[in-house]
Write a structure and sequence with these properties.
The protein is α/β, with parallel strands linked by helices and about 325 residues long. The chain has a single domain (about 5-315), classed as TIM Barrel (Alpha-Beta Barrel), CATH 3.20.20.70. The chain is about 55% helix and about 10% strand. It is built from 14 helices and 8 strands. The chain has helices at about 5-10, 20-25, 35-45, 50-60, 65-85, 105-120, 135-150, 160-170, 180-190, 200-215, 230-235, 245-255, 280-290, 290-315; strands at about 15, 30-35, 95, 130-135, 155-160, 175, 220-225, 240-245. The chain has an 8-stranded parallel beta barrel with strand order 1-2-3-4-5-6-7-8, surrounded by 8 helices. α8 links the parallel β5 (about 155-160) and β6. α6 packs across α7 (about 135-150). The protein starts with a helix and ends with a helix.
Length: about 325
Amino acid sequence: MSSKLEQLKAMTDVVADTGDIETIRRFAPRDATTNPSLLLKAAALPHYGALLDSAGRWARARGGSDAEQLANCCDRFAVDVGCEVLDIIPGRVSTEVDARLSFDTQRTAERARKLVDMYEQAGISRERILIKTASTWEGIRAAAQLEKEGINCNLTLLFSFDQAATCADAGVFLISPFVGRILDWYRANTDLVVERPEDDPGVQSVTRIYNYYKANGYRTVVMGASFRNAAQIEALAGCDRLTISPALLQELAADEGELPRRLSADHANCADTATRLDEAGFRYALNADAMATEKLAEGIRRFAADQVALERLIRER
């Protein structure tokens, strides 16, 4: 029998949750995702030193204030890493807008256009790029604008059904509902004991969103993310896409047990009716969900902190 990773690839598009080139070569995913945390890790690897130096020279040549040069250097580095990844994979790479813009629709859209333009100047078509932004009201509105311009988006830091429903209504290309961080919150704030993967609140969240999308004819792709263990991944086998860390890719590749399909568009069973939230409704629904509110805010803070750390590293170079 083939490995669970190969069985998973037969029913789900596997995405590498890393910017590490060697890992991507080894596991041959369809797509890859990056974020400020992953770029910060990549920047510490010897392989990426030349890219950082090249990005610095490029930013200095463009001129501008110190802040503008720093932002340009970070964007250049992110795009250069993305270009290297795209030399290996057949599909798309996700590149994230600065998390500090998560509550600014206009500046998020402007930064996204800049990143796509940089990719296109490097010879990469926009059809191979996904722009990542947080699933805030402002991030979703920016994504709705960008989708109309042919710029596909990946809405990340998604923890609630209402975030997912609003993303689908906005016509975004893909969402990344988090699994592990949801479980983290329930373990820290409740007495929940998960005895089976099906009882995992993160798995339940993605399953509900997937079934809602399929039952109501939404075309937005569901890509489960933020896994803590292989059992969570196996419980979502059949989901449109799953983005998986190198350690869990290795675990799945080494396991030759049987992996049954758990999700199927043909058998989507959904009790949720289609709903459309305006801004006030969205904000109230998010506020009513303590887990989603706290994890979204925490996620933005963490990505912003890693962006600042990357900028500090660049200054030191």
